[in-house]
Amino acid sequence: MAELEEDFSASTQRFQAFAARADQETMIAALKISRRIFQTPTMQQYVVEEFWPGAQVDSDEGLLEHARKTGSTTFHQTSTCMMGSHDKAVVDTELRVHGIEGLRVVDASVMPAVISGNTNAATIMIAEKASDLIRAGSAATVPAKAAEAA
Question: What is the CA 62 to chain-centroid distance, rounded?
Fold first, then answer.
């Protein structure tokens, strides 16, 4: 099995939250807005005290540091196996991996770009289309690059 081991270190995804100043400013503003909301009389009946990050954190730098330490994402990974016929595309328009006969990618990774909405419905439609292609025998015997050249 040693021959199957590969070095994936170059392909790791790097989460770069707050790398851009605009992202930093947006998060600081969001935390300040949240505080203002929870200080309204309507919300105060439900709030005993702010425990995270805590009232002692009162500077923009402190709020940003809190966001960096505790923030996470619900970002859905997409677009890592881009579909298309150009050099950067991993799969063709029928979801076949370029250069590997009999292999398709059927998930959100084939999206050429991240969509602005939730990826669930789009991924379901990709799967439905793939199902149609596979069941129809969509050029299953013709390698992807050969089909594009035709």
Answer: 28
Are the CB atoms for 33 and 26 separated by under 8 Å? no
Q: Residue 148's pLDDT is what?
A: 55
pLDDT at 116: 84
Cβ-based neighbours of 13, under 8 Å, separated by 6 or more: 77
User: How many whole angstroms separate alpha carbon 136 and alpha carbon 95?
Assistant: 14
Work out the pLDDT band at 146, boundaries 50, 70, 90. low
Q: Which residues pair with 83 in a beta bridge?
A: 91
CB 95 within 8 A of CB 115: no
Supply the residues annotated as catalytic.
76
Q: Are 82 and 110 in contact (CB under 8 A)?
A: yes
Burial status of residue 40 (CB atoms within 10 A of its CB: 0-12, 13-18, 19 or more): exposed
Confidence of residue 1 (pLDDT cuts 50, 70, 90): very low
Mean of per-residue pLDDT scores for the chain: 85
Burial class (CB in 10 A: 0-12, 13-18, 19+), 63: buried
